[in-house]
Amino acid sequence: MPVYPGARWITDNYSWRWIFFINVPIGLIALFLSSRLLHDPPAFVAERASVREGGRLSVDAVGIVLIVPSSAALEIALDRGQIDDWFGSSFICWLLGIAVMGWMSTVVWELKSHYPVIDFRMLQNRNFAIAAVLFFVFGIGLFGTTVLVPQILQSLYGYRATDAGLVLGPGALVITVLAPVAAQLIQHRVAQPRTLIAFSLCTVAAAMWYFSTFTLDTDAAHYAWGRVLQGVGYGFFFVPANMIAYSMLRPDQNNKASSLTNLFRNWGGSFGIAMVSTVSERRQNFHQLRVSSDLAPPSQILQQSVRVVSDYLAHKGYSSADALSAAKDVLYRQLIRESSFLAFMDCFRFVGLLTLAVVPLLLLVRRTRATVDVPKGH
User: Fold this and answer.
1) Is the model's pTM score more than 0.70?
2) What are 86-106's pLDDT values in tens digits?
């Protein structure tokens, strides 16, 4: 989980580009510890030996060549789509075309390859396919709201990046604390994985509903508690979702499964961020048109508001003409602020509904012994 307060502090005091250097010392420490403490089990050693041919490791070079431009095109399209008006931009259309054709070619090639970089054949396993969908929706919810909450706090409430990061921090802490609890509940057979995931998804949906009830007068504490509630949901998600994903796989398939679940989670994050950007922009235009139609020039509410604000500004020393102009400007900015806020609340509702929509998939999960007997060292 990213260290949000630290990253936000760096953004305030240096530049957001320095955030990526956080990974350097952490990565070096992780590399050192993993090389000293972790060792491949015999099944993985046998798998690595099986893919060597003539003393040389077989690499799916064609698959890598196909994946790199396809992923790059998709990421750039999702990142720039709203900025460049999606299909109104030939650049975005070309990128999406490259991404679609590239990934279609990748899937065809990987299905035929003996040593695929991404083994899409594993999606034929029902439990693994369901887990992949869950990870995709998880990515949308977590990364989408991770972008959404600071954007609300900074653009509408005037928070600094550091303050917005502190609001996100408690949610990350809750996930860290509750993930081992979920593992213990499964290990001691207190709860089934799909039961915990159902609880997780419903809790996340409840958090999205809680966020959607906020107003422009809501303080940072409420946003922090909403993030905590979301963290409670995701804290009970990771371990059960992985249990379902690996429940019907052979040990030699674990590495391939890990790459595929990471792919779906990363895709979910990219689509979630793009969704938040697009939905908030489009819904802001919608709410702005709807609210402004109710405040047309003949509106008594509008005229009264303009008169109250202009009288206040005139009392502060503005001339009559300047006070009238400034009053209209103040009310227009308030209209934009209200419209933006309503659009952000729509994003929370959308994420909540999407999260609830995948709950019925849990009824299709096959219950196996592997989903109950969790290894002690999980």
Assistant:
1) yes
2) 888 999 999 999 999 999 999
Among 113-122, 146-155, 325-334, name the one with the lowest average pLDDT.
325-334
How remote is the C-alpha of 298 from its chain's centroid? 44
Please spell the DSSP secondary structure of 148-163, one letter per residue. HHHHHHHHHS---HHH
> Which of 104, 105, 84 has its CA nearest to residue 93?
84
Tokens of 82: 């709203």
* Nearest residue to 212 (alpha-carbon basis) of 308, 108, 315, 352: 352
- Cβ atoms of 371 and 245 within 8 Å: the answer is no
Cα of first residue to Cα of last residue in the chain, in angstroms, is 19
Question: Which tokens go with 128?
Answer: 């693994």
Chain-centre distance for alpha carbon 207: 14
Q: Where are the domains of the chain?
A: 126-284+344-378
- 277/67 Cα distance (integer angstroms): 25
Q: Read off the pLDDT of residues 216-230 as tens digits, 9 standing for 90 and up.
A: 999 999 999 999 999
Q: Distance between CA atoms of 148 and 236, rounded to whole angstroms?
A: 22
Beta bridge partners of 52: 57
Task: Give me 79's structure tokens.
Answer: 């990142």
Please tell me whether residue 131 adopts helix, strand or coil conformation: helix
CATH code given to domain 126-284+344-378: 1.20.1250.20
Please choose, from the candidates 137, 125, 208, 139, the residue with its C-alpha nearest in 3D space to the C-alpha of residue 358. Answer: 137
